[in-house]
Design goal:
- By secondary structure, this protein is of the alpha+beta class.
- The chain has a single domain (2-18, 41-254), classed as Lipoprotein localisation LolA/LolB/LppX (outer membrane lipoprotein receptor (LolB), chain A, Clam).
- The chain contains four helices and 14 strands.
- The protein is globular.
- It starts with a strand and ends with a strand.
């Protein structure tokens, strides 16, 4: 068998089980780790979730930074950029361009296609159902791969984001890309996560940071989201046809850096 590699972002909140500076957070954080989620935090997060749920189709650009601790204890950050196009009834297209490859994930409501554009290799999986959650859960289970910000694309982001949350608070106001936001911070048993949500009648997530708590060095995954648009999406981009001379991978998996390795059938 021949082996190939393509690159994608490999960390979201659930995959990591997997910060304002720690001193700054300490001043704003409630005294007890057992305090419940603050009503103000619930209100802001629920309003953002309701706004996202109201969009049957949307697109957004993103920049992602993923930290990895190497064997010598040095923290290395891998950066990438991409786009997300989603039609909840028809599928989605996720693109990613990073230091190692130019890749995309395409879902047409039935089949999940992963395509390494620079190496011209691809792999395909069958989704157990037509929803974003079913497709991304299958992708995660079969490859260890996660789409950037997948929890924010779910049919009910609030439910996924607060799953397992033991604490949540409004840290205060902040600015992301020049836009004023509500800065929220949450904790679970395995990760801490923060989200910056634009203020106003149509709140949107502009930044999302996940910190893995029980790994040496507490590596983080950071996602910045911009250029949000709602409205009709060209569904033809959800149809994947293997390019000429493309090689099909029979098995794929993602390592801790998000690099996906694949084996081509004999």
């Amino acid at each position: 068998m021949s082996k190939f590699k393509l690159k994608w972002s490999g960390a979201t909140r659930r995959a990591c089980t997997s910060i304002v500076a720690a001193t700054a957070c300490a001043a704003a954080w409630p005294a007890s780790a057992q305090d419940p989620i603050e009503p103000a935090a619930v209100k802001v997060l629920a309003a953002m979730s309701d706004n996202l749920k109201s969009m049957p189709a949307l697109s957004v650009d993103y920049d992602a930074d993923q930290e990895v601790i190497d064997l010598e204890g040095q923290k290395i950050q891998y950066s990438a950029s991409g786009t997300i196009a989603l039609d909840r009834a028809k599928g989605f297209l996720l693109t990613r361009r990073g230091p190692f490859a130019d890749a995309e994930v395409i879902f047409d409501g039935k089949t999940i296609s992963l395509h390494g554009k620079d190496t011209n290799v691809y792999a395909q999986l069958q989704s157990p159902g037509p929803s974003v959650e079913e497709a991304t859960d299958e992708l995660r289970a079969e490859t260890g791969l996660d789409a950037p910000g997948v929890d924010l694309l779910a049919s009910d982001p609030y439910v996924l984001l607060t799953d397992g949350a033991t604490q949540g608070t409004v840290v205060g106001s902040a600015f992301v890309g020049g836009i004023e936001c509500d800065h929220l911070a949450f904790r679970t048993d395995t990760v801490d996560w923060q989200i910056w949500i634009s203020k106003g009648s149509k709140p949107l997530p502009l930044k999302y940071v996940i910190t893995t708590k029980w790994v040496t060095g507490a590596p983080q995954y950071s996602l910045r989201l911009s250029n949000w648009k709602s409205g009709a999406i060209d569904a033809t981009q959800f149809k994947f046809t293997p390019p000429a001379n493309a090689r099909k991978l029979e098995h794929v998996h993602a390592d801790v850096t998000g690099e996906m390795s694949g084996e081509e059938g004999q």
